[in-house]
Amino acid sequence: MKKNIYRIAGVGVLAVAMLSCNKRLNEYNPGGATADATWTTPQGFVTAVNGAYQEQRAYYGKEDGPLISEGGTDLWFTANKISYANQVTKYINLIPATNNSSFTIFRLFYRAINQCNAGINRIDGAGFTDLGEKNRRLGELRFLRAFYYWHIVEQFGGVNLRTTETNSVELTAQRSPVSAFYDLIISDLKFAADNLPNASFYGSGIAGEYSRASKKSALGMLARAYLSRAYYATGQERTDYFTLAKNTANDVIARKGELGTDLWASPAELWNPANNKNNKEALYIISNSTNQQLDYDDNANRLHAWFLTTYNGRPGLVRSIQYGFDNQKRLQPTRYLLSLFNEQLDARYAASFQENWIANTAYTWNASAANTFGKAPSVIGTQLIPGQSLAMQLTKQVVADKATKPYVVYDINDMYNVSATDSRVGTIKSLTDFIPMIKFLDYTRTLPDAQPGFNDIMVIRFAEMYLISAEAEFKLGNIGAAVEKLNVLRARAAVKTPVDRTQAFQATTQASLTAAETLEEGGGIYFILAERARELCGEHLRWYDLKRTLTDEQFAAYIKKFNPDITDVQPFHRLRPVPLTELNALTNGAEFGQNPGY
């Protein structure tokens, strides 16, 4: 059952604890121990470690996560152009005084960091007699602290870096340089990689706790951290960090057998809901259980809903578990994202997006429906047979004679306008329909209208190591090695039937990676960004990718070019504002200062 663990928490989380009252947090605590007693025995200490995992679930599996990590980029816009989360999806009214999704992780991730610091500082008093077990628990805490701090420093820059527990009111805070954040992040991850076991140590299934941080988690996050850190460096230091990123990613790839990870043979297998639990490609997993008492809240993972389009109520279609819960749309793909896929060659498109819906209820077309959906009289009387008849098609192709098709059909020109200068981009035209992303469809739900989902979330996966290695190799001038790594993923992604397109889909030329790095030519890092979009779209990384690889001016220009519905983005939006509530809670708020531009 759930018990209450008491910890200090407050609105001023720059100091992590700036409120002189206790706030109750619901966490799974099977021992029922109070906070101080929890730290003093190995058994109790484990419940404190468990608590450090909690707040990541407020980001991964909830709407704030995709809104701030995928929204506001070149790939996504708010579904049907609704006015929702405008601050982070459109950069409208993104000001320190206005609450937005990024403020959620500021508050909750600092709370989690305080939990990590408490455990790291107190572990020597926990009575561990097994040094291996002690270092495993310390490795978990240090992995999590690095994980949370990576999100904080990338979103907010050099804010407040703390390595000790805060358990009383503190009303001042100091900024730390980004380099200091990364010194700690890298140190923590190296310790974690040295001391965490392989995932197989935890066993399999919920009882085996397979979603705990493991050696592959730490190494995967370390490769990501080295890559991010390199962009803040210059000269030899920059070269050194790109080299470390490449070497660490390559190390994970070379040790895949030992670490218990590998690429699936096809994108369809990767995203098959039957392969979701303990997915072999995952380096780090956030698990969810159908026993909702074990989840963060009663909604668990709702990623399944955020990227879907409306199909329920269309001729021949009713809401189903198979097609998903379509009543809480949040994000839809841009024309640019869809244009990145050549579906004749790249099987990632069919595995990631849905264009066709087969009827799941009997229906006969009538005059009223024909009029509503712009159909010719010849369609009236056509019967749709469940399990056989095509009921709806939303496609990135151009469809001729749509009026004569006995199913709902909207093509690319119905859904998007097209730029006069670049056919890859265009503003959104349709306010009702778009091609949905289906990576997160959840068949663990028991009712079509159920909001909670129980799928695991892959936070870091094996394919990212090839992309990190390729990007680092490119930055080091090793173009051939970069192409080689990209081609491994392209070989997996290539359409295999009825004709094997593997060779046709290989990036055999180096020209794309040696072209000038301009928006117009789309060469260099933009080629790598396009490949990352094809592989990782929707997976909580796109904003970080743009923020990492582009300068302030490039960031704003890139988003405006490829997502022309976003017109308010400015160069300073590469950082989020520090919440005004946090600054106001500090007596030295003016000295601490707001991020530039806000």
Roughly what fraction of the amino acids lie in strands? 5-15%
CATH class of the domain at 1-183 and 569-598: Mainly Alpha
Q: What is CATH's topology name of the domain at 1-183 and 569-598?
A: Serine Threonine Protein Phosphatase 5, Tetratricopeptide repeat
Radius of gyration: 25 Å
Q: Calculate the terminal CA-CA distance, rounded to whole Å.
A: 45 Å
Largest sheet: 3 strands, mixed
State the share of residues found in helices, binned by percent: 25-40%
Helix/strand structural class: mainly alpha
- The number of distinct β-strands equals 11
Strands of the biggest beta sheet: in what spatial order?
Answer: 6-9-10
Shape: globular
Q: Poorly predicted ranges (pLDDT <50, ≥5 residues)?
A: 1-12, 15-33
Q: Helical stretch count?
A: 24
CATH architecture of the domain at 1-183 and 569-598: Alpha Horseshoe
Overall pLDDT score: 92
Explain this structure.
It is a single chain. With 598 residues, this protein is mainly alpha-helical. The strands form five sheets. A three-stranded mixed β-sheet has the order 6-9-10. A two-stranded antiparallel sheet has the order 1-2. A two-stranded antiparallel ribbon has the order 3-5. It has a domain of 213 residues: Serine Threonine Protein Phosphatase 5, Tetratricopeptide repeat, CATH 1.25.40. The two termini are 45 Å apart. The longest helix has 26 residues. The chain is globular and about 80 Å long. Helix 7 runs antiparallel to helix 8. 39% of the residues lie in helices and 8% in strands. The protein is built from 24 helices and eleven strands.
